[in-house]
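Here is one chain, start to finish.
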Amino acid sequence: MKKLLSISTAVAVVLAFGFWLGQWWSGDRNMNGSPANGERTVLYYKAPMDPSFRSDAPGKSPMGMDLVPVYADEAGGSDPNLVSIDPTIVNNLGVRSADAVKSVLSRRIETVGYIGYDEDTIHHVHTRADGWIEKLSIKATGDPVHRGQILFEFYSPTLVNAQEEYLATLESSNAPLRKASRQRLAAFGVSEAEIKRLESERMVRQRVPVYAMNDGFVAHLGVREGIYVTAATDIMSIAELDSVWVLVEVFERQAAWVKAGQSAEVTLDYLPGEVLQGIVDYVYPELDAKTRTLKVRLRFDNPAEALRPNMFARVTIFGTETSPVVHVPQDALIRGGAVNRVVLAIGDGQFRAQPVKIGIEAGDRVEIRSGLAEGDRVVTSGQFLIDSESNIDSALARMGESNETEIDHSEHEMPAESPPEPSDHDGMEMPQ
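Its structure:
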């Protein structure tokens, strides 16, 4: 009897100790499963540069970096796009951020262009009769030309006959015939000075000189000495450099921003440190079919002839300003095929990928039409790594939900009917 009593007493002591230990353990834990004294429960370890690599114990990643712990309070969040990174890792990755700002945004167009001749100053040299170029004084494209300079001497049987006819009318008393013959010479391009010489000297010139009408440079030379030309032959083109054009190409999406009269700035490698101020002179009516760009023309005075055709220029065109809008640096924007997004810096090492709708782009800023508010902090450096982490975690969360759904469906399915147990009469008969 005493032995039974001692055994009962020992069992009661063990049960009481177990009950006390259970009460202590449950009281020392919080609702999330982490210790009540503030310690965090580590679920697993992952590689900082490859979130798909996980381990149950601390160590090194395949890239040789220390594995980063993932805690229960981080992995149990409801937002699958939320990413938590240790502040030390954030600092090592060089993550930088900037605020979303609400202010007016100038439709500024940054583009490039090339200097060209002012086509309003170009004039082409043609003959008005068939003949031969003799004694050509212009030898190459780019040669300077001065007003009144002889460009070449031109021999034409037609002009020789016209001069002889005019000399014959000078001996006649028929004034209308004399006037008609003089007008015929002028129609062939003979200068007034040459006609007066013919009247005074009464001697026909076999080679008629052709003079330059203004100063400039030879932009095109299409003949050589001795060549036969007609009225359709483009002998040469002469252009002035007192003013030049800057031909600019603007992207199709920016075509509505540019108008004639807007101010512009031009910088050239030829003139480092100098900024040329100009205006938009003309906007061409159609886009280039190959490059899908709109051609815009700027005009600049060039008295010192420092600007030369075909020089490369960097151009800034200042369009009209928008109403106050929310905008962020272009570096913060992650462009996607269907959805554009940014990475929000929430604080305490937490980040979230945020889809946004963008508007105009001006310089290094881009308008955010929806998805962000003024003052939101966006990541401008390292956002692609954080975004990829968010996408991986989201995919894993969706996989987890899919598995839970399959398990839930399997629990509600009716069990299949079990096949009947074989009886002694089923199957092959045994031989007697």
